[in-house]
TrEMBL record:
Name of this chain's protein: GPI mannosyltransferase 1
GO terms of molecular function: glycosyltransferase activity
Transmembrane segments: 16-35
Function: Catalytic subunit of the glycosylphosphatidylinositol-mannosyltransferase I complex which catalyzes the transfer of the first mannose, via an alpha-1,4 bond from a dolichol-phosphate-mannose (Dol-P-Man) to the glucosaminyl acyl phosphatidylinositol (GlcN-(acyl)PI) intermediate to generate alpha-D-Man-(1->4)-alpha-D-GlcN-(1->6)-(1-radyl,2-acyl-sn-glycero-3-phospho)-2-acyl-inositol and participates in the sixth step of the glycosylphosphatidylinositol-anchor biosynthesis.
Record-listed E.C. numbers: 2.4.1.-
Claim: Disulfide bond is one of the keywords in the record: no
Subcellular location: Endoplasmic reticulum membrane
Stated family: Belongs to the PIGM family.
Keywords noted in UniProt: Endoplasmic reticulum, Glycosyltransferase, GPI-anchor biosynthesis, Membrane, Transferase, Transmembrane, Transmembrane helix
Pfam families: Mannosyl_trans (PF05007)
Biological pathway: Glycolipid biosynthesis; glycosylphosphatidylinositol-anchor biosynthesis
Record organism: Durusdinium trenchii
Enzyme category, top tier: transferase
C-alpha cells in the first residue's frame, strides 16, 4: 500500500488501472478465503491488531515514551507515515529500488512500534539500490 504513489506516477494511466484492479481483486480474494477458514480471528490477527498494538519492550520507535505514557498521541502515528511515504513516492526520482527504499525507511522510522525485525523491511532493498541509476 505504501508504494502506490510511486507506482502511480511511474506507470501509464491504463497500466496503473490494470495493476490496481488486479492487486485489489487478489487482496480481496485472499482475505475472503482466509476469513472463510478462520473467521474474525484472521481479521483481528492480520489487520486489526496493528491499529491497537502497543509494544513497549524492545521498541526503538520515536513514539516510545508516548506509548508508555498516558498520552494517546500514538493513534495519529499513521499520519507521518502516510505523508512521508506519499511525498517520497511522488517526488523521488530514480529507479524503483531507491524510491521503494526511501518509502520503506520513512514508513519504518515513523512506525509507532519499531523492533529489530522491522529493519529487515528496508535492509533487503539495499542490494538493489546501487544497481539503479540516478539514486538521489
Amino acid at each position: 500500500v505504501i508504494y502506490v504513489p510511486a507506482i502511480a506516477v511511474r506507470l501509464s494511466h491504463r497500466d496503473f488501472l490494470g495493476f490496481a484492479v488486479l492487486s485489489l481483486s487478489t487482496f480481496m480474494v485472499l482475505v475472503a478465503f482466509f476469513y472463510k477458514l478462520y473467521g474474525m480471528e484472521f481479521l483481528q490477527c492480520a489487520y486489526l491488531h496493528h491499529s491497537q498494538r502497543k509494544d513497549p519492550q524492545h521498541n526503538f520507535s520515536v513514539y516510545f515514551f508516548l506509548v508508555n505514557g498516558s498520552a494517546d498521541v500514538t493513534r495519529f502515528a499513521f499520519l507521518p507515515q502516510l505523508c512521508l511515504s506519499t511525498y517520497l513516492g511522488l517526488r523521488s526520482s530514480g529507479g524503483w529500488a531507491p524510491v521503494f527504499l526511501l518509502q520503506t525507511l520513512a514508513f519504518v522510522a515513523t512506525n509507532k512500534v519499531l523492533t529489530a525485525q522491522y529493519f529487515v523491511w528496508w535492509f533487503c532493498l539495499l542490494p538493489a539500490v546501487p544497481l539503479s541509476r540516478g539514486v538521489w
